[in-house]
Amino acid sequence: MPLTVLQVKNAAPRDKDYGLADGGGLFLWIRAAGGKSWRFRFRLDGKQSHISLGTVDKVALAQARQLASEARQLVAQGMHPGLEREAKKAQAAIARANTFKGLALEWHQHKALRWSAGYANDVLEAFERDIFPQVGSLPLATIKPMQWLHVFRKIEARGALEVLRKTRQRCQEVYRYAIATGRAEYNPIADIGGALQTPTSKHYPFLRVVELPELLRSIQACAGNDIVKIATRLLILTGVRTAELRGAPWTEFDLRNGLWLIPAARMKMRRPHLVPLSEQAVTALRDLEHITGGYTLAFPGRNDPAKPMSEAAINQLLKRSGYDGRATGHGFRHTMSTTLHEQGYPSEWVETQLAHVDKNTIRGTYNHAVYLDGRREMLQWYADHLDSLASSSTESHAIATMERRA
Asked: Is the pTM of this model over 0.90?
């Protein structure tokens, strides 16, 4: 007959271990030394075996019967319930070990082989800022769509819709990598797209060249980090991409000869880029050397000098200087391109300086020093032109002030 709760409670130790049958292979096992537990006995492939279902202080009679019923179903299918249980424990342990941060770092290491160092740093910085603090320590398979929606809405609330788009895309790539390598079965982020705002397509805002001197004056007058101010000035004078500037180590600069050699690993097009430095650019770098010359990076991060300056630092400075929505780090490249083309400089010089590879004009093996003399002359004219505009603007402002006072 089946056991009762009272029988289970009153079963006492004897001289030897013994069992009380509940039926269907379930037994209450009482040890002579004390202690009671549940066992399920079964026969599989002609062999008698048993598994433990837990002690009575943790598994009640009703729970023991449910566990025994589940074990019988496995035996009926030709499976050993003990081995199946161990397999599930192993899978659960693997799932716990496969946190989102662990998989994201593995994915990042795999992908970074084909990325520039600057872009790789930007991707990792975004994860560390917006993703890892919230879900990085959670097992990948346990993060639900609602949790991801909460993560992404925090970015959305800042109005950083382009950051949201890129970050969500990268998180989905982590899931695709996990699925391909057997660490996940589905991508929960794919289910929440309709609940998030999407950025509208727009061009980077940019200033006309005549507006740059006033911008530089506003930046200089603004309270802020001198490293970021010099970085902004160098973006204007060189036309390089923000990531290429932020990640530059001091070893890339030859200030004596006015040259900056960016290796292929840090370039978007994965080709080395030689940047001639105007006298004004060299002066700015000399000023910077007094501040960060003791570090590996020319533009180290505020909290960790081993990492580059924040991706948002320059745009934040522009915002505080009153140019929010009017100028971006990337927009300086457009200003330079427009001005130099209008001045009549050869398109090949301009496009090479901006590291735009023109397959019709640059053939065969790419030479990073191509048009170097012409580009040096062109960038020196550009820097001098900015100084001239600044001087004229200052003079006009002084005259206007004198006239108002008169």
From this structure: no
